[in-house]
Amino acid sequence: MENASIAKILEEYAKYLEINNEDFFRVRAYNAAVRSLLGLDFNIAEKLKSGEDLPKIKGVGKNILSHIEEIVNFGTFQELEDIKSNTPEILIVMNKIPGVGAKKAYKIYKELRVNSLGELEYACIENRLAMLEGFGEKSQNKILKNIEYVKLSMQRRLLADAGETAEKIRRFFESLNYVEKFEIAGSYRRKLETVKDLDLVIVGQEGSSVLEKISNENFFDEIKRGGEKLISAVLDGMQVDLRCFDKSEFYSALHHFTGSKAHHEQLRGIAKSKGLKINEYCIFQGDKRIEVNSEEEIYKILGLKYVPPEMREGIFEFRDDIDFSNLISEKDIKGIFHIHTNYSDGSMGLQDILDYCKSKNYKYAGISDHSRSAFYAGGLKDEELLEQIEKIDAINAENSEFFIFKGIESDILPDGSLDYSDDVLQNLDFVIASVHSGFNMTKPEMTERIVRAVNNPYTKILGHPTGRLLLSREGYDVDVYEIIRQCCRNNVAIELNCNPYRLDIDWRYLQVLVKEGGKVILCPDAHSKKGFEDIKYGVFMARKGGLPPDCVLNTLDKKEMTAYLLGNF
User: Fold this and answer.
1) Residue 469 DSSP one-character state
2) Rounded to two decimals, what is the model's pTM?
3) Is 251-326 CATH 3.30.210.10?
């Protein structure tokens, strides 16, 4: 068992403690232990199983260590299972509503005695929430609006979460000797930010009742309905539709069930104009069936260039000015920016980051801890930032093949200024300017705030431009098109934050950015080793937006990146 897996279970326990209004210091202790585990350079499970003496781990005392031992042996621990079974579901649901939080959720539950999202919604409609101490009409209206958002989010999963279930399915199907071919289609294959369900296209060995056999494997949590060619199942609470086809139909079916609806509507129109008809089984020319042996053949028959799955959204995939053969891939990324260290709320030290990045064959990294206004995330005071700068300079002096760029993720203050003086900022190679608070401004106010930050000569990157958290909160109200224009005018790159909760800037704006001559930078916003892996989700979104490597800043080599940050590229 990996340290990250153990940390995730402890983090879950801390969240349940918070939801149940338990002692603040206890919650903080478990979260501190989580950060310590993520920063270890050894596998704690292996040491425990071997009987070796553990070195002292900051924040991991006798009680938490006993929980870790239970996790290693049983995959969970009793106190977690107890609190989970005793926590009312509505408390968990209310904590997903933007603007509520653990303390308010507990107060609503105790004083209004609501037991479902519907009851809470009704309480808002009846104005009972506004009369509760600490809320008011404005807060009530905001919560009522956000309940609709939560209703939608409960039906969907983040791409990364859907990916965990999809990977389980992939491993299972690869073990079945009676399945000749299979592929996961649908919005997951298109790498949409959120996924409602998973669609499988399957070819069984000749003569085998493949879906019946799958139903009898006891792999899925539930089989909702069965049939010879289709079954609907549930795994990890997610619906999975399995469809079986003949071998000759596989690629037509895969293409059809990959979608999207809008893409197929346009494709059917193109086919009709050429006297063709396309469906999930094959292409028809009159009564003649045209079978295909690849998805590429489908587009070729229709006289079109091949459209990769990520781009099949019915938005701009049929434009002539996008080169699908040259979309960015993960191998094009030469360095990583937006990394948090243990100077603020990250779990890795500078040397750890250097070693890890070199192991991934990156040529450079950009360190950007939180700035001093972000006190909740251990933001760096002036003297701490200057100390970090000195340490980075010393590391760079000893490493000729790898370079660490010195930066900060500076909060954009309400008036649009950055929260360090020019005397401090001039010591940095780059500044990521981000909004982290004050989300309730009007659209003109928020736009002016960000525009002012973008016009600051020290700003090199605009971080997560709309502030959205997928399935948790909408972005703040801002004129994205004006922000793009201002960034391009000031040679400021726009971050595509690769964290699967953000994926911000939205890929739908990327062609606007390209047209304006701007640059995107893919940033994992990494707080731990695991966070670096999120770069792949940013690549997915960049591909959905039709970006070639030369539109993405961190495909530059070290020399080119240095020139860009100096304004000489």
Assistant:
1) B
2) 0.80
3) yes
DSSP 399-467: -SS-EEEEEEEEEB-TTS-BSS-HHHHTT-SEEEEE--S-TT--HHHHHHHHHHHHTSTT--EE-STT-
**The predicted structure's pLDDT at residue 207:** 62
CATH topology agreement for domains 3-86 and 89-153: yes
Q: Which CATH number is 3-86 given? A: 1.10.150.110
> Within 10 Å of residue 250's Cβ, how many Cβ atoms?
21
Contact 159, 192 (CB under 8 A): yes
Distance CA 522, CA 534 (A): 10
Mean pLDDT for the stretch of residues 324-334: 95
Class of domain 330-565: alpha beta
SS3 504: strand
The answer to whether 246 touches 297, Cβ cutoff 8 Å, is no
Over residues 113-134, mean pLDDT: 80
Alpha helix segments (H runs only) across 494-544: 510-515, 529-532, 535-544
Burial environment of residue 487 by CB neighbours within 10 A (0 to 12, 13 to 18, 19 or more): buried
Question: In this structure, are residues 337 and 554 in contact, taking their beta carbons and an 8 Å threshold?
Answer: yes
Element (H, E) at 215: helix 210-215
Write the CATH number of the domain with boundaries 157-244: 3.30.460.10
**Residue 402: CA count within 13 A, CB half-sphere:** 22
Q: Is 504 exposed, middle or buried (0-12, 13-18, 19+ CB in 10 A)?
A: buried
Structural domain boundaries in the chain? 3-86, 89-153, 157-244, 251-326, 330-565
Q: Tell me: the pLDDT tens digits for 51-90? A: 888 888 888 888 999 999 999 989 899 999 999 999 888 8
Q: Which residue has the higher pLDDT, 107 or 191?
A: 191
pLDDT greater than 90 at residue 121: no
Q: Quote the CA–CA distance of 130 and 65 in Å, as a whole number.
A: 44
Handedness of CA 20, 22, 25, 26 (dihedral sign): negative
- Residue 405's pLDDT is 97
CATH topology of domain 89-153: DNA polymerase; domain 1 (1.10.150)
Structure confidence by residue, pLDDT tens digits, 249-300: 999 999 999 999 999 999 999 999 999 999 999 999 998 999 899 999 999 9
Phi then psi for 336, rounded to 5 degrees? Answer: -125, 130
Task: Give one word for 211, left, alpha or beta, with left for phi > 0 and alpha for psi -120 to 50.
Answer: alpha
CB-based contact 125:53 (threshold 8 Å): no
